[in-house]
Specification:
Radius of gyration: 19 Å
Strand order of the largest sheet: 1-2-3-4
Shape: elongated
Largest sheet: 4 strands, antiparallel
Order of helices and strands: EEEE
Low-confidence stretches: none
Helix content: under 10%
Oligomer: single chain
Mean pLDDT: 83
Number of helices: 0
Strand content: 25-35%
Number of strands: 4
Distance between the termini: 71 Å
Length: 66
């Protein structure tokens, strides 16, 4: 019997620290899976997901005649 990975983090739904469990990963991530579920309310969080930075393009504003 394998133990499920658990962590204690802030749950935005419960508005408090809660225990989160890592469910079995269907995407093949294994122990590196970013999905975690709150054991109190079931809220899902992605934790440890790398964020891709994109180059910000300058905004263009169009003017319309009234």
């Amino acid at each position: 019997m394998s133990m499920a990975a658990m962590i204690e983090v802030y749950c935005p739904e419960c508005a408090d620290l809660r225990v989160f469990e890592q469910p079995p990963c269907v995407d093949g991530h294994g122990m590196d899976c970013p999905e975690w579920l709150c054991l109190t309310c079931g809220t899902a969080l992605l934790i440890g997901v790398p964020v891709e930075l994109r180059e910000q393009l300058p905004r263009t504003f169009s003017s319309r005649a009234a």
